[in-house]
């Protein structure tokens, strides 16, 4: 018994008169326009009610944490190598801006997602459907969901292709990439605590390693990275399925629906966990930050406008080779006083940029 037959049977019992699965339940519609419509509706509602609120929550958590850690200055890194200093707040606000951009891009896709194929029936012509059916359907649906749905401008496109789902999936992938970047930054900063960077300490959510006592792994960032990998894989499947719109119908609708909704749910869960169980609760290891900054030879970059790139490079190499603070080596090889060097090489001032 298919869905229409089940509905017809139940309706017949309630109404006390025959309800036909084809003549009544399926009147003015076809699975060919219903399934593309349900993909759009379910994805739109999932974005409105789940993922977008979760991403907004994550941004709020990050921005609040950024305010808390603003006083801390750390060694910046490019190519995983020591670079100029940055404030912890600058790092976190960078994450927040990544996520805000993703939120904006997802919101930009909502009007297309809220445009429905319903009313196109078999191939997009609307055969056997009342001319006003699509409009009334969208109106009633909008009232029920409090989300503004509209009939598609071209029902042939919405039945014969799944370009909107492909676009949404692509943006979900971009969001996953941002989450993976944040998760990996947290893992690196938390690495150690002795042989790694040890800049932060993530909240311990488990007693330790199964074999190494006291070793607490960054389980939430790692889980978030796995979620991101799955969403990227889901997008590949949706991309392949999206090109299977043969003439007037895409034949891979089930796997598009499955992967699209799965990606939304996974990202929703990961966003809240990453915010609440990793970012909100990590502690800063201030002593480790200061130790690394004091030995960072790249601080000499601030002297480039005064002593030139070549001389600055020689000072940096010597400081690194001898394991000495760059300020001591610069004092020996320039005419600058210690007070001048302390002013010029002040890590906090260097995070403000400029010459």
Structural account:
It contains 15 helices and eight strands. It has 355 residues and is mainly alpha-helical. It folds into two domains: 33-106 and 156-285, Fumarase C, Chain A, domain 2 (Up-down Bundle), CATH 1.20.200; 295-350, Orthogonal Bundle (Ribonucleotide Reductase Protein R1, domain 1). The longest helix has 39 residues, at 31-69. The N and C termini lie far apart (76 Å). The mean pLDDT is 94.
Can you lay out the helices and strands and say which pair or pack?
Blueprint: H1 3-15, H2 21-25, H3 31-69, E1 73-78, E2 81-87, H4 88-113, E3 115-116, H5 133-145, E4 150-151, H6 155-160, H7 163-190, E5 200-201, H8 219-242, E6 245-246, E7 249-250, H9 253-279, E8 283-284, H10 286-294, H11 304-307, H12 309-322, H13 326-333, H14 338-344, H15 347-350
Parallel strand pairs: 3-4
Antiparallel strand pairs: 1-2, 5-8, 6-7
């Amino acid at each position: 018994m298919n869905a229409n037959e089940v509905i017809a049977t139940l309706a017949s019992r309630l109404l006390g008169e025959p309800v036909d699965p084809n003549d009544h339940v399926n009147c003015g519609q076809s699975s060919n326009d219903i399934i593309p419509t349900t993909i759009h509706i379910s994805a739109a509602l999932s974005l409105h009610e789940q993922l977008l609120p979760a991403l907004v929550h994550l941004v709020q958590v990050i921005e609040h944490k950024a305010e808390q850690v603003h006083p801390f200055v750390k060694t910046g890194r490019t190519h995983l190598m020591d670079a100029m200093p940055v404030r912890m707040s600058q790092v976190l606000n960078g994450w927040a801006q990544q996520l805000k951009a993703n939120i904006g891009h997802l919101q930009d896709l909502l009007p297309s997602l809220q445009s429905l194929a319903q009313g196109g029936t078999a191939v997009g012509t609307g055969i056997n459907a009342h001319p006003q059916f699509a409009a009334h359907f969208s109106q009633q649906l909008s009232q029920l969901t409090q989300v503004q749905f509209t009939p598609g401008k071209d029902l042939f496109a919405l039945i014969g292709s799944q370009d909107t789902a492909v676009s949404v999936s692509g943006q979900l992938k971009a969001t996953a990439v941002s989450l993976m970047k944040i998760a990996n930054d947290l893992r690196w900063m938390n690495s150690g605590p002795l042989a790694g960077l040890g800049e932060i300490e993530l909240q311990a959510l488990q007693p330790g390693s199964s074999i190494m006592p006291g070793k607490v792994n960054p389980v939430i960032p790692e889980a978030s990275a796995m979620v991101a990998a799955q969403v990227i894989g889901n997008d590949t499947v949706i991309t392949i399925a999206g090109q299977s719109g043969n003439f007037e119908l895409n034949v891979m609708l089930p796997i598009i629906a499955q992967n699209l909704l799965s990606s939304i749910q996974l990202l929703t869960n990961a966003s809240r966990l990453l915010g609440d169980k990793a970012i909100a609760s990590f502690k800063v290891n201030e002593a480790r930050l200061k130790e690394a900054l004091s030995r960072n030879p790249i601080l000499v970059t601030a002297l480039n406008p005064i002593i030139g790139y070549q001389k600055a490079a020689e000072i940096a190499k010597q400081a690194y080779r001898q394991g000495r603070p760059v300020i001591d080596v610069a004092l020996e090889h320039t005419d600058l006083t210690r007070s001048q060097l302390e002013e010029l090489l002040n890590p906090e001032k260097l995070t403000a940029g400029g010459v």
